[in-house]
TrEMBL record:
The keyword S-adenosyl-L-methionine does not apply. Binds 2 magnesium ions per tetramer. Residues 39-154 form the TRNA-binding domain. Residues 711-804 form the FDX-ACB domain. GO terms for biological process: phenylalanyl-tRNA aminoacylation. It is an enzyme of class 6 (ligase). This is Phenylalanine--tRNA ligase beta subunit.
């Protein structure tokens, strides 16, 4: 929110530079994004008066103007604005001047006619298009008649002011107004803001004669209305327009501008209805009905949800409560009677309504953060009196109330000992009392207990901890002494689970994969891919985009999106892994999903890029990725046999090149090639992936002693070639060899696979090297031969192998 420095000075005596004031606000209250002066960067822009003009001889829309800029001679300027007019005072950029976007204006010729500068529109000197009043949006701006010719224009249109852009946190909604900031600065600088409170001039006719309110206090705990008759709709005075456009609000007319002004000043959203557009005289605040629609002021027709709250007359909705008014009750040039609404709506309902309709208005922002419940009537009175003064309206007597309650001050007890203990200070009772008084709080002291009375304008304060924060920030965070904590300390360290997770990342990076971090949110379709277990989806109630509606139940889909991003940019060799959580729900009624740590990898193209080899021949395959997974599990020291069992239960995976990963019969993940149709849908090249349940791996027993001394005795090898059926797998052969290999069998290595000429149909030839080693002694040939013969016999008997 942009706060005007000069506006603040109307209520406080701020003898401090705007930049210093902004720093004080940031150190004590809320963040400040920037301090800007609208005229910064502009140069040589002055007040001019059009003394005469004539059509350009070579154009049907240009005019040659003679402009008085306070010099001895008139200055000739060519202007193409449709509203240029003799006798008007205008904004003139002189030759050599700088206007918006650092554009330099030079003396030039326009179709052969000399032009000494430029007559400017507001947006040409830096005003945002959406704050320029509509009457000036298509042409040049006319300055007030009392503007001094030749003087800089900035003071006449508020560009010499400083604007402090505060970034208000949700807990400090009171700072979303000039009064709120003024009260806070008053506390900081120990001043009492000189805030003006309105006195309403009413006529005898009662508001209750014109309107009755029927309000559901569950949606609007406070709802009040005033009627102002015989208003004259016209442009607001310049001082009001300046305050609005400096706050980033476009001036509309003297009635609508008053409601926006009150919002900026008090922080209380108001809405002005054209009373004559009501059906009947009963106004209702209620939930919307099924099938109802409302065209809002932005001219969008909206289907209302039964959870939306609306303001309605006897026939139809006329406003989306607390968010935006309806087009069917807007103030226009024909309006003569205005109904002013001032209310407090339930914040959660406003937030959800605004999200449903993607209407994040200033009013909704205020209601979501809360408003001063004790200031509803004051803001309503101020608006009615302003419409009397600026629109010649007649204010009907009294306020019609649809819902209300007694708004009371918050009373909180806190002790001096507690304050000094928490803040680490040695403040005296007088100092703390003075701080509470600076804040505008009532305070009384009994022994060392403060009874603090907090007014409704600070609705964020409810408990002693809130008072502690107020004391700290007004006393000054920089003044609080720096102290070291006392008492015993403990050495911080990672848990076993954290160590293993970090080790997992290091292992996969060492194996050639790069870490990726994907969104936990995805589409419902992608969330349900690559499912390792049955689960219900977890959908967001209010997703930000259509691509992020559902919590993921796998990691692979995110990795495939990353590969697709790279492939689309001609990066073909991609090797990624991701460690993160997936979200499962056992039933649709489960409120919160369970979170499970997974780790996954995806490789497309070459894992090891070798420019001297054929890229296609060197592309990653199932066995290369399987080796990565095996080495990863080995380095994790999982105790148990690892099996890879062919499966076709994943529809997104290639049915002939996919395997479940089992450890001691427990399924911990899967590995394989992405199905060609799935790859096509993601627009990626041939890709191999794996995904593991990391929580399951972390819970499995580990090999505690992984160190093995290097034997000083020589190893002995034996080779064996087998002719077996193609249905016999390498895993089955290894299992039999390891089972009967004896105590000294150290390793088994498959070094040849052959199926072709001289091998019968349905058969394959596999050749293995068996390595034997005794860590305590030198092996003899007899010992090795006995063990080797047992292996051969077992292979023949159990697998029907033929020894070659």
């Amino acid at each position: 929110m942009k706060i005007s420095y000069s506006w603040l000075n109307e209520y406080l005596d701020l003898k401090v530079a705007p930049q210093d004031l902004a720093e004080k606000i940031e150190r004590s209250s809320v963040e400040v994004d920037e301090v800007v002066q609208p005229s910064a960067g502009l140069k040589k822009i002055v007040v001019g008066k059009i003394m005469s003009m004539a059509p350009h001889p070579d154009s049907d829309h240009l005019n040659v103007c003679q402009v008085d800029i306070g010099e001895d001679e008139l200055s000739q300027i060519v202007c193409g604005a449709p509203n240029v007019e003799t006798g008007k005072k205008v904004i003139v950029a002189l030759p050599g001047s700088r206007i918006a976007n650092n554009v330099k204006i030079k003396r030039s010729k326009m179709r052969g006619v000399v032009s000494n500068g430029m007559i400017c529109a507001l947006d040409e000197i830096g005003f945002e298009k959406d704050v320029v009043p509509k009457e000036w949006s298509e042409g040049i701006y006319f300055l007030p008649e009392d503007a001094e010719i030749g003087a800089p224009v900035y003071s006449y249109i508020g560009m010499d002011d400083y604007l402090i852009d505060v970034d208000v946190t949700p807990n400090r909604g009171d700072m979303l107004s000039v009064y709120g900031v003024a009260n806070d600065l008053g506390a900081i600088y120990n001043q009492t803001p000189n805030l003006n409170h309105p006195s309403v001039e009413e006529i005898d006719t009662a508001t209750s004669d014109k309107v009755q309110l029927d309000v559901d206090d569950q949606v609007a705990p406070i709802y009040k209305m005033r009627i102002v008759e015989n208003v004259k709709i016209q442009a607001s005075p310049l001082w009001l327009q300046i305050k609005l456009w400096n706050a980033g609000v476009r001036p509309i007319n003297n009635v609508v501008d008053v409601t926006n002004y009150i919002l900026i000043k008090y922080g209380q959203p108001l809405h002005a209805f054209d009373y004559n557009k009501f059906d009947g005289n009963v106004v209702t605040a209620r939930y919307a009905k099924a099938g109802e629609t409302l065209t809002t002021l932005d001219e969008e027709e909206r289907e209302l949800d039964p959870h939306d709250i609306v303001i309605a007359d006897s026939q139809k909705p006329i406003a989306l409560a607390g968010v935006m008014g309806g087009l069917n009750s807007e103030i226009d040039d024909q309006t003569t009677t205005v109904a002013i609404e001032s209310a407090v709506f339930t914040p959660t309902l406003i937030r959800k309504t605004a999200q449903r309709h993607n209407l994040h208005t200033s009013a909704a922002q205020h209601f979501e953060r809360g408003v001063n419940r004790g200031g509803v009537e004051e803001a309503l009175d101020a608006a009615a009196q302003m419409m009397h003064e600026l629109a010649n309206g007649e204010v009907l007597s009294g306020i019609e109330t649809g819902a209300s309650y007694d708004v009371k001050d918050e009373v909180i007890d806190i002790t001096l000992t507690r304050i000094n203990h928490v803040l680490g200070t040695t403040l005296t009772a007088d100092q703390v009392t003075q701080i509470f008084k600076q804040l505008g709080f009532g305070v009384s002291l009994s022994d060392e207990t403060f009874k603090v009375t907090v007014p409704p304008r600070r609705w964020d304060i409810h408990i002693p901890a809130d008072l502690l924060e107020e004391v700290a920030r007004i006393y000054g965070y920089d003044e609080i002494p720096a102290t070291l904590p006392s008492g015993p300390t403990t050495l911080g360290k990672l848990t076993e689970k954290q160590v293993l997770i970090r080790s997992s990342r290091q292992l996969l990076e060492a194996l050639g994969l790069n870490q990726a971090i994907s969104y936990s949110l995805t589409t419902a379709d992608k969330a349900g891919h690559f499912m390792m277990r049955d689960s219900h989806e977890t959908e967001l109630s209010w997703p930000m985009t259509a691509d992020h509606t559902t919590l993921r139940m796998n990691l692979i889909s995110g990795l495939l999106d990353d590969i697709a991003y790279n492939n689309a940019r001609h990066v073909k060799d991609v090797a990624l892994y991701e460690q993160g959580r997936v979200f499962y729900k056992d039933s649709a009624d489960q409120v919160r999903p369970s979170e499970v740590e997974h780790i996954a990898g995806a490789v497309s193209g070459q894992l090891v890029v070798d420019p001297l080899r054929n890229a296609k021949a060197n592309a990653v395959d199932f066995y290369q990725l399987k080796g990565i997974v095996e080495q990863y599990l080995t380095n994790l020291a999982i105790k148990g046999d690892v099996e890879f069992v062919a499966t076709d239960r994943y529809p997104e995976m290639h049915p002939g090149r996919t395997a479940d990963i089992l450890i001691h019969g427990h399924n911990v993940g899967f590995i394989g090639q992405i199905h060609p149709l799935t790859a096509e849908s993601y627009k990626i090249n041939e890709t191999y992936v794996f995904e593991l349940n990391l929580d399951a791996l972390l819970e499995m027993p580990k090999e505690m002693n992984q160190y093995q001394a290097i034997s000083k005795y020589p190893a002995v090898t034996r080779d064996v070639a087998l002719l077996v059926d193609k249905t016999v797998t390498n895993a089955e052969i290894l299992a039999q060899i390891n089972k009967r290999g004896g105590a000294y069998l150290k390793s088994v290595h498959l070094f040849d696979v052959y199926a072709g000429k001289n091998v019968p149909n349905g058969k394959q030839s596999l050749a293995y090297t068996l390595t034997y080693q005794n860590p305590q002694d030198t092996l003899t040939d007899d010992e090795v031969n006995q063990a080797f013969e047992k292996v051969q016999a077992t292979l023949v008997k159990e697998l029907g192998a033929e020894i070659r």
